[in-house]
């Protein structure tokens, strides 16, 4: 039997959810909800959802026994309430990224997932690229060794999305929660979710404020940079922008005691192409070129399958729901992105390094 889905929030991204559910198969969208009735009605018409299952209140929608899982596609400030309500109503939840606009919201969501025993998966789809999955295995197997430093940067020279993304009341914050969350999560996920303890950061909105499209409207940041200390002694430098006078802020890499790894490649930098790495490459069905074979060796990999990350994340969700397994991206791990983002905004406000604490779940 198909997994029956109710979608909350029928704006832009709900269409991608509909496409992915249809492509992956095994799902049926049975109900939709939006606070704007016309949007919900239009979505229902487009997706063949019966008129009686169109709602403007997610609480009403959640009374439907016929719903197994809920897609939360509302803007960031409205992630917490429908997610917590759906989990408490015994539904599994697939919620869009970022997990939430605030640390308090994210914590409430993770607690509800724990108490209900239901799956909470956050739409951090870039974790599902075969390249990142492989890089994570390289790190998990100890090939890189203890990671003492990492960087996670991404740059849009001009790429402010506008719409509901530029207001605190809908998005909570700007580039950091919108696209920075992918960087933060990719790095934390690959490194095995090290616990952050201190953050020093700045944010900026200068370039957008020169643009009449955003001036006097936007109240979130277009740029952020942070220095994050982890309990294990390691440090991560994080940089992100929607708008900046540069075309690169660097890449995503980790420096370990045995080797370094670029997560963008992935590329491994080591003194040699170790037997363990050779074994992993073989077992993953990849090929590698180590140049030179000994000395300052750079190892590049080939043979990664082309994967549609939307399809990959929804397939992982479907399998977790079908087998009553845990979320493929543990919510307690994803929560660390909110811990760091909260530290970034507090540090920017106070102009000081701040302590951050991972909440008890
Ligand atoms: N995964 C991706 O690639 C990707 C891309 C874009 C956006 N997103 C995420 O998707 C989310 C939504 O983005 P969007 O572009 O679709 O925004 P949007 O503003 O187009 O749509 C949000 C919809 O939610 C509705 N809504 C708000 N509060 C509600 C509530 N309490 N109950 C029911 N409906 C409610 C709004 O009326 C609106 O129709 C954001 O969290 C964003 O970060 C993800």
State the gist of this model.
This protein has 361 residues and is of the alpha/beta class.
Report what the structure shows.
It is a single chain. The protein has 361 residues and is of the alpha/beta class. It has 2 domains: 141 residues, NAD(P)-binding Rossmann-like Domain (Rossmann fold); 194 residues, 2-Layer Sandwich (Dihydrodipicolinate Reductase, domain 2), CATH 3.30.360.10. The chain has a 10-stranded mixed sheet with strand order 14-15-13-12-11-7-10-9-8-16. Strand 5, helix 5 and strand 6 form a beta-alpha-beta unit. Helix 8 packs across helix 12. The longest helix is centred in the last third of the chain and has 20 residues. Nicotinamide-adenine-dinucleotide binds next to helix 1.
Descriptive tags:
globular; alpha/beta; 6-stranded parallel beta sheet; 10-stranded mixed beta sheet; 361 residues; 2 domains; binds nicotinamide-adenine-dinucleotide; Rossmann fold; 12 helices; Dihydrodipicolinate Reductase, domain 2
């Amino acid at each position: 039997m198909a997994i029956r889905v109710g979608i909350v929030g029928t704006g832009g991204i709900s269409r991608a959810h509909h496409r992915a559910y249809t492509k992956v198969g095994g799902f049926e969208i049975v109900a939709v909800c939006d606070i704007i009735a016309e949007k919900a009605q239009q979505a229902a018409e487009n997706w063949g959802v019966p008129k009686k299952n169109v709602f403007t209140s997610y609480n009403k929608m959640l009374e439907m026994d016929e719903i197994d899982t809920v897609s939360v596609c509302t803007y960031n400030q409205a992630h917490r309430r429908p997610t917590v309500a759906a989990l408490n109503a015994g539904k599994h939840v697939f919620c869009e990224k970022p997990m939430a606009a605030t640390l308090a919201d994210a914590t409430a969501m993770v607690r509800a997932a724990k108490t209900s025993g239901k799956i909470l998966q956050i739409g951090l789809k870039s974790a599902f690229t075969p390249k990142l999955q492989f890089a994570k295995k390289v790190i998990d197997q100890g090939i890189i060794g203890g990671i003492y430093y990492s960087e996670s940067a991404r740059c849009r020279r001009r790429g402010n999305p506008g719409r509901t993304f530029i207001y605190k009341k809908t998005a909570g914050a700007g580039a950091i929660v919108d696209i920075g969350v992918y960087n933060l999560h990719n790095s934390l996920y690959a490194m095995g979710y090290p616990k952050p303890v201190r953050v020093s950061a700045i944010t900026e909105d200068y370039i957008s404020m020169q643009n009449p499209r955003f001036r006097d409207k936007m109240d979130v940041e277009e740029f952020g940079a942070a220095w994050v200390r982890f309990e294990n002694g390691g440090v991560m430098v994080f940089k992100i922008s929607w708008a900046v006078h540069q075309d690169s802020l660097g890449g995503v890499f980790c420096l370990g005691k045995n080797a370094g790894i670029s997560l963008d490649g992935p590329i491994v930098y080591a003194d040699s192409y170790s037997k363990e790495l050779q074994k992993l490459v073989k077992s993953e069905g990849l090929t590698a070129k180590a140049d030179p074979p000994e000395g300052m060796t750079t190892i590049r990999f080939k043979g990664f399958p082309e994967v549609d990350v939307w399809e990959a994340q929804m397939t992982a969700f479907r399998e977790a729901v079908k087998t009553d397994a845990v979320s493929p991206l543990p919510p307690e791990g994803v929560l660390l992105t909110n811990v760091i983002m909260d530290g970034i905004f507090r540090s920017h406000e106070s102009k000081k390094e701040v302590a951050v604490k991972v909440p008890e779940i």
